[in-house]
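Minutes, project huddle
Topic: does the predicted pose make sense with magnesium ion bound?
PN asked that the exact inputs be recorded in the minutes so nobody has to dig through chat later. Recorded below.
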Amino acid sequence: MEVTAIQTLATTTDPQPLVAAVSFHGVHKNFAAKPEDEPFRLSDINGEVPEGKVLTLVGPSGSGKSTLLGLCNLFLTPDEGEVRVLGREIRDWQTPMLRKTVGLVFQTPTMFPGTVLENLSLASKIHGHPLSNARELLARVGLEPDLLNRAAQDLSGGQKQRVALARALANEPKVLLLDEITSALDPAAAKDVEELILGLRREQNTSVIWVTHHLEQARRVGDLTWLLVGGRLVESGATEAFFENPQRDETRRFLRGELSGRDV
Ligand code: ADP
Ligand code: MG
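Predicted holo structure (tokens), as shared on screen:
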């Protein structure tokens, strides 16, 4: 009986390299200063946010946190270096597609004139398809559907913040950039928003960069944490290690509340 040799193909057990949700490669950004100010420079930022992770970004006021977020969706472009979203450099993206993929929610939500429904529908209008899940979007952010026909400008601050979040979610973003989004909410509402974002990460593998000055929140919601001071990335690590066992003296001082402002 003839035996057929079965050749075992060499297999590799190495996993495929994962594409980061967002990665920074030698990024610098300068701002010309007003005469009374020191010039600001975001210097040599390197690091990545793996897909499906929450990165909490902390640092004193003026340390460059919002600037770093703005570099992820073409509000700003780097002076040097590259920012890649899902592996593609931001300047190689079409801006509308990048902004659909990367949602940004600000501390102070901007409502456009019109109803809540119209505010939620803005992005889908731009992309030429009707919004079919407005009620569901509102429910996801903990708002009643009867708000849909209310004038968005008349909502409370907390309601506007939730509508702004729902508006970003209408695009089904792969990456969410959150800039101090709970600072105007009471603690219970802030916790609700935290649950919502963590649910998105769990269920849709959404990646998040979350700027917060609230250190307990940064610790609660983060998988990874970065500290920016004066435009430099001082320390980055797993969130628990960052808070439990910081490696840098500057981080220890920051966690003790001894660093503030940009002059440090
Ligand atoms: P953070 O969010 O950590 O408080 P920012 O990223 O907003 O810090 O700002 C960092 C520094 O860059 C600040 O000194 C700020 O004044 C300056 N800055 C931010 N945006 C601009 C801009 N568009 N033009 C000039 N300076 C800016
Ligand atoms: Mg800021």
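Observations noted during the meeting:
- Confidence is low (pLDDT under 50) at residues 3-10.
- Residues 31, 40, 59, 61-67, 262 surround adenosine-5'-diphosphate (ligand 1) (CB under 6 Å).
No decisions taken; revisit at the next huddle.
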